[in-house]
Amino acid sequence: MPDERREEGKRKPVVVLTMGMAGSGKTTFVQRCIAHLHQKANGMKEEDVCLPYVINLDPAVTHVPYEANIDIRDTVHYKELMQEYGLGPNGGLLTAVNLFATKFDQVVELCERRAAQESGLERTADEDGEDEDERGEAINYIIGDTPGQIEVFTWSASGQIFAESFASQFPTCIAFVVDTPKCTEPRTFMSNMLQACSVLYKYKLPMILVYNKCDISRHEFAIEWMKDFENYQQAISTDTSYAASLSRSLSLVLEDFYGNMPSVGVSSVTGSGMDEFFNLVDASVEEYNENYKKTLESNKSAEKVGELLGDMKVSGQGAKPPQPHHL
Amino acid sequence: MGRYAQLVLGPAGSGKSTYCSQVGEHCTSVKRRVHFVNLDPAAESFEYPVSLDIRDLISVEDVQEELKLGPNGALVYAMEYFEEHLEDWFAQVFEESYGDDDYLVFDCPGQIELYSHVPAFKRFVQYLRDRGWSVCAVYLLDAQFVTDTTKFISGCMTCLSAMVQLELPHTNVLTKLDMVENKEEVENFLDVDARSLASQLNARMGPKYLRLNDAIASLIDEYSMVSFFPLDYTKEDSLQDLMAYIDNSIQYGEDEEIREQLADLEDGGG
User: Fold this and answer.
1) pTM confidence score
2) Please, which residues 267-306 of chain A have a Cβ atom closer than 8 Å to chain B?
3) Fewest Cβ atoms closer than 10 Å to its Cβ: which of A54, A130, B148, B225?
4) Residues of chain B whose pLDDT is less than 50?
5) Residue A261 domain-assigned (yes or no)
6) Cβ separation of A190 and B161 shorter than 8 Å?
7) What part of B 93-122 touches A (C-beta under 8 Å)?
8) Principal localization (chain A) (predicted)?
9) What is the pLDDT of residue B230?
10) Are A186 and A213 found together in one domain?
């Protein structure tokens, strides 16, 4: 793999956005990803070393077990925000994420600058020479840890801004983290899958289902359920409620969902399944290039035409492009 | 004998509180009695009169401060605490104040995890139903995020995932329709057929998802499992229609007539 990367010269790092319901173990999963990539980098030659770039997007997290390169908490202070504006926990969370979204262009810019660096080379000094203390390794993955409440990300404008700004610059994929032990309950499983489906249609980005906590309970049962809806229907046959029959009808859709969805069982504790996960991430780049990028480019060209037309009309008094402030 | 309740659900910022206050105003104007119960331990302030508040028992802010939990952990803790005290706190206060012929509106927290991963809510709903309440879930979604077909599907899936968990008559509502610029486009989604839905999806998603698109489109169309009710507060009839729709689903008012008949029969017999 590293050879391929070097041949391509500047292989763009892949953005992995972790999403999932609260308590599914997103943060520990991110921690494990980082540990895994660092471990891999250990045995490499210095010029091949590639490390992940980590971004924490959860303003309310109290403790992050990894070292984040960019942390939303350095920019917005969730508790202070709540006090200053008299917001509740929910309002505070949304506001914090929204505020950060207004500066997100700078985050992407930082990532881009970082991605342009190559391993083992003397870094060209930045004009302001600010980040001299940064390590000089190239980055292979950008890992984003999203807020614990899935709604904050999926049903707000800011989540869209985060995902789309990344996706416009880098190959991006979503790792949907599922709490495997909790999913042994057929209805919770269905709820999770529907959320995943919802995220898929919202962002249109390649998605990988990550069955987390595999050390507690294996994920094979879930795969069995997805592969063959009869298995799922059997599992739910003891449940005669109205919601169960709804789940049964939904399992027909689920079968098609699985056919398209790469999934992997991992354990953030033991680290099993991580190699497979990163293989899937690398494979998702192709899907990104084929689908998302194409749509993006056609949209861009359409926009350009629109812009040109717009410029002709305003002639001279066009709005100034927004000047990014420093973080 | 009727006991009626609405559970108002939806993601943060979907307009639950506004909905409640509008329902309050509407009911005052048509001289209908309705009570509001707050079940969101993270709620801030209300624009409507709250007669029972979960925060009298526990509030997320207190939990966060005392147990040093993050907002999520605190919310889950609060709901579990609520479940623990369902019998000894809630039941007491609740049964003292409400009973037959009451119409309640529950303002619930929005996080889906509370319904799927924590049993507290299921038990609460069970509690209500055991005591003869007919309950309807009203799931609110912000229409501003439902601007194209894929996002509409995304919304449908979110609603479905709540429906699977709550075994209740379910009404999905698109709020803030007055904020949407292109209303016609949104209204198109409310009445779609499978084929046009699938073809729109196919145009927007990668070729890999063709079969999934078909399956979802037919699911939505054939089973008509997810339908949305557009809600626009600037239109007078909008809320009234929605209330009538919900009333219908929980059979509000139907008992009334039967009781009158029963009373007549009893009068005749006696």
Assistant:
1) 0.80
2) 287, 290-292, 295
3) A130
4) 269-270
5) yes
6) yes
7) 110-113, 115-117
8) cytoplasm
9) 86
10) yes
Same domain, A175 and A157: no
CB within 8 Å of chain B, chain A residues 206-245: 241-243
For B3-180+228-254, CATH gives 3.40.50.300
Test B161 with A88 for CB contact under 8 angstroms: no
Residues in chain B: 270
Q: Are residues A214 and A265 in the same domain?
A: yes
Q: Domain range holding A176?
A: 171-294
Contact flag B142-A155 (C-beta cutoff 8 Å): yes
DSSP annotation string for A63-109: --SS--SEEHHHH--HHHHHHHHT--HHHHHHHHHHHHHHTHHHHHH
Pairing type for strands A14-20 and A172-179 reads parallel
B253 SS3 class? coil
Task: Give, in order, the Cα–Cα distances in Å from A155 to each of A29, A152, B201.
Answer: 23, 6, 20
Percent of chain B with pLDDT over 90: 7
Q: A interface mutation test: which of B9, B17, B53, B117 has the most A CBs within 10 A?
A: B117
Q: Is residue A178 exposed (0-12), middle (13-18) or buried (19+ Cβ within 10 Å)?
A: buried
Task: Examine the domain organization and report whether A48 and A109 are in the same domain.
Answer: yes
Place of tokens 């717009």: A310
- Does A186 map to a domain? yes
Q: pLDDT grade, residue A17 (50/70/90)?
A: very high
What's the complex ipTM? 0.78
Q: Which uninterrupted H or E stretch holds B134?
A: strand B133-142
Segments making up each domain of chain B, as ranges:
3-180+228-254
Q: Report which of B116, B108, B91, B89 is spatially closest to residue B39, judged by C-alpha positions.
A: B108
Q: What are the backbone angles phi and psi of residue A173, rounded to the nearest 5°?
A: -140, 160
pLDDT tens string B103-124: 899 998 877 778 777 778 888 8
- Confirm whether A67 is domain-assigned: yes
How would residue A126 be classed by pLDDT, with cut points 50, 70 and 90? Answer: very low
What tokens appear for A34 in the block?
A: 């980082």
Q: First-to-last CA distance in chain B? A: 21
